[in-house]
Design a protein that fits this description.
Layout (H helix, E strand, L loop, with lengths): L3 E9 L2 E6 L7 E5 L12 E5 L2 E4 L3
Antiparallel strand pairs: 1-2, 1-4, 2-3, 4-5
Length: 58
Amino acid sequence: METMEYKVEKIDGDYAILIRTDDGSNDEILVARALLPDCIDEGTELVYECLSYSVKER
């Protein structure tokens, strides 16, 4: 499975808008917050792999 990196651009109620950051495409996706870690906020960097999101380790 492919690993993808995202940044939380905006939180809007039960959804978050994510921007893809690893390939330069800056594609936006809308994701239900129930699928994301509880601790996210705008600007949080995420990693998507194995069908789940996690906060990116620095």
